[in-house]
Amino acid sequence: MKIGFISHKNAVRSVMAEAVARKLLSDLGIKAEVFSAGVEPAKEVNPLTIKTLRDKGYTVNGLYPKPVSKIPYRKLDVVVTIGNEAKERCEFVVGHKRRENWLIEEPSESEESFKRTLEDIESHLKGLLKLS
C-alpha cells in the first residue's frame, strides 16, 4: 500500500500525517510506503511541528517539505489532501483506490494549537484505517 498526504506547504499537517501514519501502520504490522508533499512547499518543516511530534514519541527523521512531483503520486493507492487548497490544486492526482480531503486548519503559532492539530490528524488516521 502507498499513501500520500498533500497539503499547502508540507511544513505542518501533511508532515504530521506522514509521521503518524508511518508509526501507526508499522505498529499494526501493515506494510506501507507513506509520503507527504505540498502544492507550494515551504523551505523547512515548522520547528513546532518537529517539537510536537517528538513530544508524542514520533520519529522525525527524513521529514522535509517537498513538491508533489517528488513523490510517486501516480502510484498512490490512497491520497489524502489536507485543506481545500490542496484538494483544488491536486485534481491531477488520479488513479488511486481511495481519496479523502481532511478539513484540518493550519495551527496558530502556539504549542497548544499544534498539539490539537496532531490529535486531529491522529483521529482522522484512525478513521481512515477504521480503528477505534
From TrEMBL:
Keywords: Arsenical resistance. The keyword Metal-binding does not apply. It holds the Pfam family LMWPc. The keyword Nucleus does not apply. Residues 1-131 form the Phosphotyrosine protein phosphatase I domain. GO terms for biological process: response to arsenic-containing substance. It comes from the Bacteria. This is Protein-tyrosine-phosphatase. The lineage of its organism: Bacteria, Pseudomonadati, Aquificota, Aquificia, Aquificales.
